[in-house]
Write a structure and sequence with these properties.
With 332 residues, this protein is an alpha/beta fold. It has two domains: 7-120 and 304-331, Medium-chain alcohol dehydrogenases, catalytic domain (Quinone Oxidoreductase, Chain A, domain 1, Alpha-Beta Complex); 134-273, Rossmann fold. The protein has nine helices and 16 strands. The chain has helices at 49-56, 126-148, 166-177, 192-197, 230-238, 262-267, 281-294, 297-303, 312-320, and strands spanning 7-15, 21-29, 38-47, 67-68, 72-80, 90-94, 109-112, 118-119, 158-160, 182-186, 202-205, 221-226, 240-248, 270-273, 304-308, 327-331. The strands form three sheets. Strands 3, 5, 6, 7, 8, 15 and 16 form a seven-stranded mixed β-sheet that branches. α6 (262-267) links the parallel β13 (240-248) and β14. The radius of gyration is 20 Å and the shape is globular. The structure holds NADP nicotinamide-adenine-dinucleotide phosphate (NAP). NADP nicotinamide-adenine-dinucleotide phosphate is lined by residues 48-50, 134-135, 138, 161-168, 186-188, 206, 227-228, 232, 249-253, 274-277, 319, 322.
Length: 332
């Protein structure tokens, strides 16, 4: 390629002392990008919970320094030493160690190993793919866990916690469109209208599902998608119906699980852990195919906004402190 710039603007974390680091926008020489078969011109990235933790330094996401942040990216291949990709291919990466051990998406250009890169689904623009981002793709992995368990619409309600957040809002949209009666749990009662517009049948507060610490309570829903962990997840499990399933993917409310074995041994409840970072490529591709087929584009537009890369330093704290809702794509 002859028209490549000499530098790429990126949000990079440099170690200060011990595990502490400082982040700043820098113009990094293209020649200093890490090794990899593909050079990608990044048009969009995303803001996820993990990105907010990395931006603010609230949790040790970064495992090697210096590190370019951004766990997601979408863009176009400009150089390829891989037989699987050619210049001009539109591509996508979710997780796979970006912003942890591999340089990530908050950079105009990024060099990547081909094994972490997948083709952008044809019916999504790079911006739409990043509006979905890791959070939306994880919502689909949770929905896949429920449907693989045999869950079908028309019978029991499905509960979604953290419903106004990234994973939660996409999960509500996907499940409602598939015909499930969705009970959306939120700490923000003022967002009831937003959640109903995504298709929630009812909106509950976290207190509405509080069992008061009881390990088993009245059976209320057939399945759940939980992003909260902690006591809320214990409450969810305690009220899941016989043979039901809970897909647990997050810890927005805590990393502990103050629950008992009774829902598992007396009701046959399944607790299914969902990871998005190291999912094998075939399952990622399947998840994105289902997103193409099942995600309502109008709802995606309604629950998303796109912000410039320059806003990232303030968007991180905004997300963690509950000032954002839905999904944020980042224009690079
Ligand atoms: N396993 C994986 O691979 C994977 C992938 C993506 C995300 N995650 C995890 O999933 C979680 C959600 O991610 P996200 O991108 O959706 O983040 P997000 O956009 O910040 O949404 C999180 C939502 O959780 C709710 N919440 C916040 N504090 C809470 C508390 N103390 N108790 C209960 N609910 C609380 C809030 O929703 P309401 O205000 O509506 O209650 C908030 O909007 C995070 O823990 C993230 O790390 C995991």
């Amino acid at each position: 390629m002859t028209d490549l710039p000499e530098t790429t603007r990126a949000l990079i974390a440099r170690q200060t002392e011990g595990r502490k680091y400082a982040t700043a926008f820098e113009d990094i020489p293209l020649a200093d990008l890490p090794e990899g078969e593909l050079l990608v011109r990044v048009s969009h990235s995303a803001l996820n919970y993990k990105d907010a933790l990395a931006i603010t330094g609230k949790a040790p996401i970064i495992r090697a320094f210096p590190m370019v942040l951004g766990i997601d990216l979408a863009g176009e291949v400009v150089e390829s030493a891989s037989a699987d990709f050619a210049p001009g291919d539109k591509v996508l990466v979710n997780g796979f160690g970006l912003s942890e051990t591999l340089w990530g998406g908050y950079s105009q250009y990024q060099r990547l190993p081909a094994r972490v890169v997948q083709k952008l689904p044809e019916s999504f623009s790079p911006e739409q793919a990043m509006q979905i981002g890791t959070a939306g793709y994880t919502a689909m992995l949770c929905v896949m866990a429920l449907t693989e368990h045999g869950l079908a619409p028309g019978k029991d309600a499905v509960l979604v916690t953290g419903a106004t957040g990234g994973v939660g809002s996409v999960a509500v949209s996907l499940l409602a469109r598939a015909g499930f009666a969705v009970s959306a749990v939120t700490g923000r009662a003022e967002q009831e209208g937003f959640l109903k517009s995504l298709g929630a049948a009812e909106v509950l507060s976290r207190e509405d599902i509080d069992t008061g610490g009881r390990p088993l309570a009245r059976e209320r829903w057939g399945a759940a998608v939980d992003v909260a962990g902690g006591k809320l997840l214990a409450d969810v499990i305690a009220q899941t119906k016989y043979d039901g399933i809970v897909a647990a993917c997050g810890m927005a409310g805590g990393g502990d699980l103050p629950a008992s074995v009774y829902p598992f041994i007396l009701r046959g409840v399944t607790l299914r852990g969902v990871d998005s970072v190291m999912v094998p490529m075939a399952r990622r591709v399947r998840a994105w195919e289902r997103l193409e087929a099942e995600l309502d584009r109008d709802l995606l537009a309604e629950l998303s906004e796109t912000r410039p890369m320059a806003d990232l330093p303030t968007l991180g704290p905004d997300l963690l402190e509950g000032r954002l809702k839905g999904r944020i794509a980042i224009e690079i």
